[in-house]
Amino acid sequence: MNATLLDTLITPVVMLHDDLTLAYVNPEAMALCTQPYEAATPFFEVFPFSKQNADLAALLLRLSHALLEAQCSDILGCCLAGKKGRYTLRVTRLAPSMGLMVQIVVPQQAGAQRVSYFNISPVAMMWTDSHDIIQAVNPAFEAMFGYAQADLLGRTPAFLRDGLDEQTTLEAMWKAVVDEGHWKGEVHHRRQDGEVLTTQLSLSAISHDHCATTYLSFFTDISHHFEQIKQLKARAYQDYLTELPNRFALDDTIYELILTQSYFYLIFIDLGYFKQINDNYGHLVGDRLLHAVGQRLHQLDRAFVCRYGGDEFIVLLPISAQPSDVDTAFSSPFLIDGQAISVIAHKGVAQYPRDGYTSEALIRYADKSMYKMKSSGFRS
């Protein structure tokens, strides 16, 4: 078994099948082993614990039958051959026919709170049987997904993915678990309230020759991480000054239009005498003017508006519109800090596919067209 989360614990943890043979031993527990072992080796052969006037094997077997799922009980005052001090064996029943979790509490931790890692783990955990039917979940799982354990027992985790297209991911997951015993990746799940969570799922198989395979899953909610990425991506595609899309967003939009539209216009706009506006009114007014220009252009029907850089804007229009529609944005002065500022706009027009087949070709054509009109004294 490759249970990566349990491997990181500083607490020795051993997973046992119902016949008290080993299913999994984490690295901290391996340090206490007295001999090499393989899966299905009896627990007390590898961990020769003893307790005065007690048959530990019989006691552990009785606990395996007496404990209810997710319940735990301590066996105090255990000695380990070759080691000093007394240990506590904290035994947790995972679910019927699912085996036991044994935490070995070392002497210096003898006063530790008497609860099972399964119950106090901040990581959501789920046990399923050989048919992937849920046998137990821990409180962290209940908190993450909003379900009580009683609502989950006897169901498969598939209902947590209702309406979510995860088939390709799940096929890859089960192939890896069958081939390698373990898989880790991103899977979407739905909470009881309908909210979709992006989770990092770690799934491990526990099996040996004479017992059916069972599965241990760890879930980590990474939805906030994806929300942060979404916000960063939005910022990366937005001009900070005008709040319009920037040239990265422009490239994506042109590419999409090329794939989906037969024709469209690309209009390159340059604001005339903008340097003089900055000199006369100050750069703060100039910045606010750029924002106001962007907002007026943004109000054009069916227009995609981008601040290309400096005082340059690019507008994409459907072929059913007219390039002259952009002139309305400059037909009246802009009121900035009480100042009425008239703006002259020079524009150049390119039409797809007549004037180019790529974003670079269309922008280059419209830019040259704009400079020809600018040099000839044309104004919008």
Automatic annotation (TrEMBL):
Superkingdom of source: Bacteria
Keywords tagged on the record: Plasmid
InterPro entries for the chain: DGC-Regulatory_Protein, GGDEF_dom, Nucleotide_cyclase, PAS, PAS-like_dom_sf, Rev_trsase/Diguanyl_cyclase
SUPFAM superfamilies: Nucleotide cyclase (SSF55073), PYP-like sensor domain (PAS domain) (SSF55785)
Residue ranges of every copy of the GGDEF domain listed in the record: 262-380
SMART domains: GGDEF (SM00267), PAS (SM00091)
Domain (PAS): residue spans on this chain: 129-156
NCBIfam families linked to this entry: GGDEF (TIGR00254), sensory_box (TIGR00229)
Protein name: Diguanylate cyclase
